[in-house]
Amino acid sequence: MCGIVGYSGKQEAAPILLEGLKKLEYRGYDSAGVAVIGADRIRIEKVGGRIALLDEKTEGGKKLPGTVGIGHTRWATHGAPTDMNAHPHLSNDGRFAIVHNGIIENYASIREELLRDGYKFESETDTEVIVHLLEKYYDGDMKNTLRSVASKLSGSYALGILCSEYPDRVFAVRESSPLIIGIGVGENFFASDVTALVQHTKNVIYLEDGEFAVISPANIEVFDYAGRTVEKPVSRITWSVKAAEKGGYPHFMLKEIHEEPGAVKATIAPRIRDGEVVLDDLPFSEEYLQSVDQITITACGSAYHAGLVGRLAIEKMAGIPVRVELASELRYSDPIINEKTLVIVISQSGETADTIAAERECKALGAKVLGIVNVVGSTVAKLADYVLYTWAGPEIAVATTKGYTTQLAALYLVALFLGKQRKRLPEEEYREYIDEIDRLPKLMQDTIDMNYALPDLAAQIYEKPAVFYIGRNTDYAVSLEGALKLKEISYIHAEAYAAGELKHGTIALIDVGTPVVALCCNEALLEKTMSNVIEVKARGAKVISVTFRDEDEVIAQSDECILVPRTKTLFAPILEILPLQMLAYYTADKKGCDIDKPKNLAKSVTVE
Ligand code: M6R
User: Fewer CB within 10 Å, N- or C-terminus of the chain?
Assistant: First the structure.
């Protein structure tokens, strides 16, 4: 969602800000803007639409001379994505400019108060109240002013602020929205995430909630809202600049699909030692492990879908009852969670607002939280009692691919670990699973290599109005993710159904030529799924099955086949999803869609 950048240094700020904003494009946005402190005043340029337009309007930043500035990509919440609603916003006296990521929940009452005081509003945004509050409470000392303003606001906000009285400084404030400071030499930066910083520096400071920073070219000072200085540790970004570039691929999504075997290997390999799952990251005590009587997995979107596979693996291997809840539902559902519940929170970004709220709720109820997270230092990771990082590297495409498969890998490790620790998994089976999990990166690579013909299949479905996905058990869990991939990037209506539910309603939607993607890798249920395949075929559906390459009966019954190497049933989803991601990719490509930045979507959903 919204992204913010800031710069204070000796170079021209605007081109650096524009570059930074381009790196944040993947988060999703619909307008953009920059503000720079010029010789006489703060100058702002902003546009509804793409950064390319802003680039053009400012002549690559040349029209905004100055060495200190802030920039923003906005994902509209309050007010349409117009020029006026785009950030930065300027105070009536022209002294302050701000950019904001998050939502000000009490903006309506503040706005009324400010209107009564005579302040003029130019936009419909919640954000604009902040810049007028800055003007109202400014007493010549920015530290005091920021504290006064923060005390008026409720909601979530990461703020970047310029004040013309301090022409060499940018101010950054964090409350429930990520903000990271990049430390340079004679110049400093801030941004919503490290992708915008990594080309300048690898040394960063993660601001915490309730902290603000005063950033000049030579100095970074961090304070809490009580005005006390906070000594911040400097962290090192491990991602390379290359990791956040397309590297010759036409889209990040395709690059990230091809990175999946390596990402899963990076997630699994360091955690299998001498034939055992070793989770140094999870220092569970023996006593705690035995006390857990239920597991709740919570997440949103694809991470939730990963949780559905995780549930099947954990229940089978460890025999602990697991429920999987959408974070947006769990937070309002009076969940039955207590100190005997292990809560697994899954998030690629670690900044999804609903996921964070659900995590807080579970902690308040006394549960221990295990976070499965990709972004180091993110909010979900910080709140969790234990963190199992997925080592996927930066994921730029809005549609998650390696984020999802590395989450599956992490969940398989947790399932095996719990199965072993709780003495539920017979030794021989455990060994078989360990051997197989080791092979998964290779099997994933084979799957990608085997499916070079997917563009042809995509050509058969890209003009269809709807595609259905069916499967049972593990196959059903992965069909949900397959359908989500297709709908989010190709805008084709795609729905997943538990195959056994077809006859209870959905089969009425099957017509001659309707594509039905049948997931057929759950051996124990294959016969059952095949009877559903035959039923939809009898109604004219075109069946595209995803199955093991030696599953002759399925191959014979299908109109088209997507083949994967054979593996254990519980591990099949990590292979099955690869061609489904590729099918979605090639279908969207054929339709000419903006694959990496699908309409209306944001990479990290930082508002409820
Ligand atoms: O960063 P998170 O894993 O918390 O994100 C959760 C969802 O927003 C995310 O998986 C979303 O569904 C993706 N666009 C799916 O590709």
Answer: C
Dist. CA 170–CA 3, nearest whole Å? 16
Q: What is the pLDDT of residues 380-397, one digit of tens each?
A: 999 999 999 999 999 999
How far does the centroid of ligand 1 lie from the alpha carbon of residue 403, in Å? 9
**Contact criterion met (CB below 8 Å) for 244 and 394:** yes
Round to whole Å and give the CA distance between 288 and 579.
Answer: 40
Is the CB of 398 within 6 Å of ligand 1?
yes
Does the domain made of 252-450 have the CATH classification 3.60.21.10? no
Q: What is the mean pLDDT of the chain?
A: 94
Q: Which of 22, 255, 368, 603 is catalytic?
A: 603
Residue 583 binned pLDDT confidence (cut-offs 50, 70, 90): very high
The 10s digit of each residue's pLDDT in 257-310 is: 999 999 999 999 999 999 999 998 888 888 999 999 999 999 999 999 999 999
Q: Which CATH number fits domain 3-242: 3.60.20.10, 3.10.310.40, 3.40.1260.20, 2.40.10.270?
A: 3.60.20.10
| Integer CA distances (angstroms), 584 to 172, 407, 444, 479, in order | 39, 20, 17, 12
What is the CB neighbour count within 10 angstroms for residue 232?
Answer: 17
Question: Which pair of structure tokens corresponds to residue 204?
Answer: 């960063």
Query: Is 163 among the catalytic positions?
Result: no
Superfamily of domain 454-591: Glucose-6-phosphate isomerase like protein; domain 1 (3.40.50.10490)
For residue 360, give every residue at least 6 positions away whose Cβ sits within 8 Å of its Cβ, in sequence order, or none.
383
Give the CA distances from residue 43 to residues 51, 67, 170, 222, 227, in Å, rounded to whole numbers and listed in that order: 17, 12, 14, 26, 30
Neighbours of 356 (CB within 10 A): 24
Distance 336 CA to ligand 1 centre (A): 25
Pocket test for ligand 1, best of 256, 383, 400 (most atoms within 8 A of CB): 400
Reported as a single tens digit per residue, the pLDDT across 27-56 is: 878 899 999 999 989 999 999 988 999 999
Q: Which residues are 73's β-sheet partners? A: 3, 32
381, 373 contact by CB (below 8 A): yes
How far apart are alpha carbons 295 and 311 in whole angstroms? 9
Catalytic residue status for 2: yes
Domains 252-450 and 454-591 share a fold: yes
- Which amino acid is present at 59? E
Do you find a cis peptide bond into 441, omega within 30 degrees of 0? no
Distances in Å between the Cα of 593 and the Cα atoms of 148, 459, 534, 546 are 46, 14, 33, 25
| Residue whose CA lies nearest to ligand 1 atom number 12 | 301
Domain spans in the chain, listed from the N-terminal domain onward:
3-242, 252-450, 454-591
C-alpha closest to that of 521 among 556, 479, 560: 479
Tokens of 409: 């890998």
Query: What is the rounded CA–CA span in Å between residue 575 and residue 505?
Result: 30
In Å, how far from its chain's centre is CA 64? 33
